[in-house]
Structure formats: C-alpha cells, structure tokens
Amino acid sequence: MSSLGVPGAKVAKVADAVGYASTVFAGKADQMQHVSTYVAERGFIPKELVNNEVSWFYGNLGIDDMYFQQESVETIAQHIMSLYAAKIFAYIKNEKSLEINLERETDEGAVYIHTSRPGVSTLSGPKYEQKIDEKYLDVSSKTAAYRLESFRSFGTVSSSLSTMLRCYFVRKCSFAKPHPTADEEKDIRLVGDKHFLEKATENTLEIYQNIMKQVLIRTGPVIEMFDVPNSREKRLVIGYRHATTQLFFSALSDLYHYYDLFSTRKYVEQFSNGVTIMCLYLNQIPGSNAPPIETSIFQVIKEASLIYCLPTTPLQSFFQQGKLSVQEAIYGYVGWIFAQHFLNRLGSEYAALNSIVDTNNPNHVEVLTKIKKRLRSDTFTREYILDIIKLYPDLIKLCYLHFAMVHYINPADNDLKPSLSYQRLQTIPVLSEAELMQTIKKTVQNNHELMIFESYLTFNKHVLKTNFYQPTKVALSFRMDPAFLPAIEYPTPLFGMFFVVGSEFRGFHLRFRDIARGGIRIVRSRNREAYSINLRSLVDENYNLASTQQRKNKDIPEGGSKGTILLDITQQDKALVAFEKYVDSILDLLLVGESPGIKEKIVDRYNKPEILFFGPDEGTADMMDWASQHARSRGATFWKAFTTGKSQSLGGIPHDIYGMTTRSVHQYVLGIYRKLGLKEENCTKLQTGGPDGDLGSNEIKISKDKTIAIVDGSGVVYDSEGIHRDELLRLANNRQMVIEFDVSKLSPKGFRILVDETNVRLPDGTIVDSGLKFRNEFHLDPMSSADVFVPCGGRPEAVDLNNVHMLLKEDGTPRFKYIVEGANLFFTQEARLRLEKAGAIIFKDASANKGGVTSSSLEVLAALAFTDDEFLEHMQVRPNAMPAFYTEYVKSVQGIIEKNAELEFECLWREYQRTRKPRSILSDELSLAIVRLNEELRSTTLWDNVPLRRIVLSEAFPKLLLDKIGLDTLFKRVPESYVKAIFGSYLASRFVYRYGTEPSQFAFFEFMAPYFAKIQ
Predict the structure, then answer these.
(1) Which of 80, 493, 813, 993 has its CA 20 to 30 A from that of 775?
(2) SS3 label, residue 519
(3) Which of 845, 790, 954 is nearest to 553 (CA)?
(4) pLDDT digits (tens, 9 = 90+) for 48-91
(5) Are strands 275-284 and 758-761 parallel, antiparallel or unpaired?
C-alpha cells in the first residue's frame, strides 16, 4: 500500500488483475432465444430488426453476465424494447446520444441500468448512486445489509451512437455467520456474504481481511491503493464501520470525476461484524488534461477521508461542476456553519441600547435578552447566509487559500513532486489579510454580504489548529482562539473553544480555564421548528452552562466547561455515532500525530499541551466508558482522567448510584428546614425530573417530605394528600418514569396524566386537552403550589420573566416558599429576583447543584494519582469484588460534598442576614469572589513557599489518598498545573466561606496566620 501521507510514493502493493471471479452464465444463449421470441411476439420492434437488437444487447454492450443470470426473460425483453424506444426518440430529435434509465426493485435488491459518460457526475435525472446510498447502503446493518456490484459496459448502445451504459446490481446479503462471536468477527470467511465468498479471489479475500482488521480497531475509514498488473488502472479499497457516514458511495464518484477518473467496476461488500468495504477500479479518461492518475490517485485517497466526514454539503454542486475543489467546498460549508453561530448581527444600535439600560433591573435585562434573540434570528437566517455564499464561489476559493496557507503542510518532503493540493495552492495568488479584505469589499454588493465574508476571515484568523488535513478523520475539528467573541454578548472571556462539524451533527466545547471540567450534552430536536430554536441558541446555551459550571466549580481545582452536540434534524437517532465522532476528532487536536498516513503532525499555532475533562450530561451518561477506553486505545496518557461518570469497572464513581449531586442539593433543603425550625415530614413539595433520572430518583430516596407532584418525561403524577411514598421509592429504585406508577395508590384527589393523552377529566372536573402541554406547563399551574420546589430536571429557562407571574398568588406572595435548584438554568436570573422580591427563599443551581462536579473532580484526582496497576487494584471494581479503598474513598467523597454544601449554605445565609441582597445575587458574588481570589493567588508568591504549600495541600488532598500514596508521590504524579489549581481553589473557597464576599483588609492575614504558625 502506498503511504497515504506521501503523494507519489514509489512503493505500492500490487493486487491481482481480476479481484472477483467473473460471472459466467451457462444458459445465456438459450435465454437469448427466449428473449428474441418474447420481443417478436410483442410486435413493438419490427421483426426483421429483433435479432439484431437482441444480439447487440447480449453481445456488443458489454453488460456483465450477472445481469442475465439474475433477470427474467420478461424483464430483459422490456429493457431491450426500452432501449430501442430511446434510440427512435434520439433519431427523431437528431441527437447523437440518448438517455436510458432502466430499473427494477424488489425486496431482495435492485437492478439499475443507465447511460453514463465516463468521468462525469450526473447533476439531474434519477441519480441512481444517491438512491442506492439512501435506500440500501446507508441503512445496512449487521442484521440486514445489501452488497453492490457495478460495471461499466465496454460497448456502445449501437453502431451509430457513442452512449455507454452503467449497471448496478444490489443484492440482499446472506452472511455465512449472521451472529459471529468476538473471535469469529475477525475472520472474513465467517462474516462475509456467501455470494461474495464464492466470487472473491484469494488475493481479494486477503486484502479485505487486512483492511477489516484495521477497521475493527480504528475509528474512521481505512484506505488502501493497489496497482493492477500490466495496467495504469488503480484499485482503491476503503473500509469503514456501518452507519458512520452517509451518501459516501455517490460522493466518491463526484470526487474521482473531479480528477478526470472513471471506474470500470465498483463493489460494496457488507459483513456481519458491522464493517463495509468498497472497492473501485479507476482509470483516467483518454485524452484528459488532468494530472496523471499516478499522481491524482493520491489526492483522491486524501480527499476520500474528507468526503467520509462530510459526504454532501449545500455546496456540492459547485464541486460536481468543477467550480470548487473538495477542500474548498467543505471549507465553504464549515464557514457557513461558523457564520450561523458567530456572525455579529446585533449592530451598533444594540450596543447603544445595552449601554443605557439598567443592568441591575431584571426587567431591562430580560427585555434586552429577548431583543438579542430576535435580532439574531431575523437578520441572518441560515438560508440567507447560504444564498449569499453561493453567489461568490471565487471568494470562497480565496478565503480557503488564506486558511490553507497556514494549516496545510505539503507532506512530500522526501519526494520530488509536491502534492496536487500544494500545486493548486501555488496557482492562485496568495493575498494578505488586508488585501483579501479589500478584494471582498470590491466584490460584494452590500454590507450584509461583506459581514458574511468577514466572518470567514474571522474564522481563519482564530483557528489555532485543525484536523482538516489529517489523512484519516471522522469529523472536522478546530481549536479556536475565542477572542473574537464580543464582550457585549459574552462578558466573561473564554479560555478555549473547540468547534466540531460532522455529517450528523455540529458541536462545541467551551471552557473558562485551562484546567476545566464539565459534561457533554446531546441536544435533540422534536421537529424542524425545535431544531431551528436549538440551532440559534446552541452557543449561548453552551456558554451559559459552562458559566454556571464555572461558578459551581468554585470548590474544586477545575474551572467550568461544557460540550454540546446538536444532532441534525434528520439524524436524531445517531447520538452515539455523533458522540464518538465528536470525541475522536477532538482527540485529533489533543494528541500529537505520530502515524504517517494515519495521524500525522499538524500545524499547531497554540503550541501548548492541553487536556480536557469530559463528564456525563443529557444523553451521554452511558458513553463515558467508551470515551475513556478510546482515549486509551489512541495512546492518550490521560485516559483514566479523560472522562468521569465511567462505570465502576473502569474506576468511575457513578453519581446516580451514590447520589452525589443530590447530596449537595438536599443539604440546602435541610439547611432551610434547620434555620426555620421546620419538620421535613410536614412540608409539601413539587419535583420536576422524575424517578428515572439521577437527581430525581435520589431526591425521592433521600427525602422524607410530603411530595404532592412529580413531573417527568412521561407525564405528571399528582396527589394533594401526598404521593404514596413506597410507590415512589419503588419507581426510584427501579429508575422508572411515572408512566409506571400504580394509580391504585393515589387518593381520590390524585391523578396521573401522560404526555400522549388528550381530553382527560381531572378529579375536580377540569378537562386536560393535551397531556404534553399539561406536562410542560404544570409547574406554572396553581395546582402545583407547595412549600418547597426542587427542580431536578427540565429545559433551561423554563421560568422566565414572561411566565414568572404564574408562580405568584393573587396577593403577590410566591406559590413556593422555598426553591432549591437541582436542575441547571431552570430559572432565568430575572425570574429568580422577581420571586425573591415576592418573598421566596431561593438557592440557585450554581450553589446547590455542585455535588456531581466535586465527585468527578475527586475521581479524576485518583486517576491522576495512581499508576495504571494501582488504579486497577484500588479503584476498578471487579465482579463481586469491590476494593476496600474504593468503598472508603466513595464515603470520603460524599463527606466532602456535604461539607462543602454546608459551608456555602451557611455563608449565603449569613451574607443575606448581613446585606439583605437577593440570595441569587449573593450566590454569584460568592462564586466570583472565590474565582477572583483563586486567580489572584496564582500571581502571588504563596505557591513558591514550599513548606506552606505542603501544609495547605495536606489539608486539601483527601486524607485517604495521602495515607495510601503520600504527599511527595502525589506531587510527582499529578501535573503541577493541577496541583497549583487545588492549592488556589482550596484557599480561596475556605477564605470566602469564612469571611464572606466583602472581607476586611486584614482578613486574609488572619486567615493565613495558622498556616504560617505551623511552618514555624
């Protein structure tokens, strides 16, 4: 195989010329006689021409015998008559070529025959290759799959017409072993289709076997090229996993056509181990002016990897027509997505309005937020941006060149010829940023068009590194410098941004510090309208979640981060595929490539080592094990710490099993009861987020209150007498939704309404028209009124300034006296302040919901502290064998969570008594005070005082780790940046919890005095 990274490399594997045994149909002559008789009987073709037409179809067209073997006499006769009719039509219109489209589809497969010019993509008509992709190849799975054989006829349709035909034969697979074991799935003779195993030569089986082995251990496509003996023909073989790309087969045709190549034969084989292998026999069009196939084939190999990531884009037609190259079209598409999210469309009027409103007035702030959302959605729609981009393909070329000159490395250092990509870059004059800006200004027609192409320059300028030119990849990833984000919209600067684009999704990862932690969230959309809303709010929601995380992470060394993966509207069932691509493509930018032709070194303008810490969030809780193991398989030294929320067998501390998040939330509930002298058993409670979820189930298990209503994904269960506690516990222990609630356990005043129910009568006579609407708005219904409200689930901003009045009684007092936010961002800040003004006691998410992140942080610390062998011994739970250290460490983590929650609760209660400021404001001030002091401590000499460092860290590190490993070993194993962060966060949080947000000038000296005393 030629090395992928070295275009023009001289060493190439040679495949046999045949590859597959030709189909020989013994009954062909006999069948031809029957067909002639059938055609003659129909009388459509003059009798004296029948034999000539049938003989030409059988002998001169060059259709593979497979067709004649598979098809019936009737079908073949109909195809011959269709061909004759097309010739008559062409003769009448005096055309030198004709259009033929023959097809037959059954449950077992399909046959398509159409006219095809070598090396030319079809832009109109039936588009059979796309049809084959969508109907057969893209839906193939281990249990139901389709293989394909395609041949180009070597003859023409008649002696007077130059038209050639291409045939496609799709056939349902019959695997030798449909359900192979783990060992069997590596053997091609067991997982292959029976028909394929009969036809493939030994050489083909060997080639496919080797590629299959690579596909099973690697993400992304495996691409190899073989020389065909005594020929310039090249054989391209590509392997990948089922359902990891779409429309790939048809997109590959567009790719090699761009380089004036055509295929004589094409095969797509499926295997019962989940692998697809494509094989293309490629030749150059005679008389082509394109670079020779010996050079262009390497460009096809490189760009096949790009096509695999994004097989089709709205700019595809420019590529098919040769107006843009693959790289230019895909770059243009990525720039379009970037513009959708980051085009600064608010304008000077918004900035002026922002400067004159009172930012301390929640009404002003919420109105301003609404205006911002409206401006963004109304000014530049996705469609409008795309229409403008399509007007200027030449500007896309120039912007791409500006991008490529920074990030493209010509890999042909040891070769006499540079790659075609590199040659292409030399043919267009390279413009400076200023010159490119001037060219854009001269070319575009108005300010809107200018802003769109300015966003391409913004993108180029802020990409620090990318896997765009990696030989193999599964999605495109970009490490961005987030400095381009306007401060008016994103007041707290981000430390880092990753931007990922895949065929099923787009995603971001935002973080506020180098060492940062946060979950990865899958964002699904019920319909196109929901998708548009999710798309517009994606970056803002990601930023806000990371910001909440930053405030929440005040007790731990990591800052705040968050990842979001928005599934495309047509890919709502591809969450796992999208997550795997997201993780792998980000790893491309965290790990230095060291495998020529697979993962190579990239241009790195950031040039510093980076580690990200991923945690579970909506839709990804069961994917953390895979991410950790995948990082390990790719050689990441940080694999143990890469993800949290892993299963116990991998050393994870599951938040749900041990109720880590709930332990923090419930401390605030208990704190309120304690301060106000309330008995928990007498307090009524509303809970959103049901017994199937982590927070919801553990809140039920840990509490003793009188819960009157639970709202979850399946519906609402309500009982004013208090919902049956044992039945709730049963659901919580089984992690089941309220749809499973035994309604016989409800009192006469109780009910359960499910989301798919309509026109249901409640016990008080009220008619519920829509169960879905009732569920979505139940927290706003007066019926849900209770002493305590604990949101444990629900969409962000479920309560905002528009509906917060519905949480107030007629006399203006709140329907919920006490609110402890378990769910992130359930209330907007303005809604919280309105409720506090009405008399509610609210503890917001950033304070209450921090148990999970503390648990995750301590899980990571153990992963960084232990060697692989020690981690296996002390942290990885084996069947029926839980390490003693693990059991004790979990208890220690629970204790730390409860202590941190108690310290912050007491501080907030005390600060409220002192200042009478709303607790929602105090919570932010407390977080900011800790974060600010932490930053300031980094620039002091306290860290340099080694004896002080040892004393502080002896308190900050968990005692169990210190006893097991020792302080000196921890210093050696845990990265210094991480230890420094522990040192700063511990001192900062303990100081602020004790002295509040406005300490005296001498408070810090007083706080540090005991530490210095210990040194002496």
Answers:
(1) 813
(2) strand
(3) 845
(4) 999 998 998 888 777 778 788 888 899 899 888 888 887 888 77
(5) unpaired
Question: Which one-letter DSSP state was computed for residue 945?
Answer: -
- 121-129's contacts with Cβ under 8 Å and 24+ in sequence apart are 121/253, 121/254, 121/257, 121/320, 123/317, 123/320, 123/321, 125/99, 125/101, 126/101, 127/250, 128/101, 128/103, 128/168, 129/168, 129/249, 129/250, 129/253
pTM: 0.83
Higher pLDDT, residue 676 or 422: 676
> Is residue 138 within 8 Å of residue 129, measured between CB atoms?
no
Q: Are 843 and 905 in contact (CB under 8 A)?
A: yes
Name which of 244, 249, 215, 218 is nearest 147 in CA terms: 249
Show Cβ contacts of residue 672 under 8 Å, excluding neighbours closer than 6 positions.
678, 788, 818, 820, 841, 843
What's the order of all strands across the beta sheet hosting 613-616? 463-466, 476-480, 496-501, 505-511, 559-567, 516-523, 613-616
Q: What is the pLDDT of residue 92?
A: 81
- Residue 891: name the closest of 723, 659, 714 by CA: 659
Per residue in 854-866, pLDDT (tens digit) is 999 999 999 999 9
pLDDT (tens digit per residue) in 247-260: 999 999 999 999 99
Which residue blocks in 553-634 are alpha helix, DSSP H? 575-590, 624-633
Active-site residues, by number, are 562
Question: Which positions ≥6 away from 111 have C-beta within 8 Å?
Answer: 67, 70, 71, 75, 102, 103, 104, 167, 168, 169, 170
Amino acid at position 713, single letter: G
CA 495 to CA 482: how far, in whole Å?
7
- Half-sphere exposure (Cβ direction) of 733: Cα atoms closer than 13 Å: 6
CA dist 499 and 503 (Å) reads: 14
pLDDT in tens, 331-372: 999 999 999 999 865 666 677 777 777 767 777 777 777 777
The pLDDT of 758-762, averaged and rounded, is: 95
Q: What is the C-alpha to C-alpha distance for residues 1009 and 988, in angstroms, rounded to an integer?
A: 15
Environment class of residue 969 by beta-carbon count within 10 Å: exposed (0-12), middle (13-18) or buried (19+)? Answer: middle
Contact call for residues 207 and 437 (beta carbons, < 8 A): no
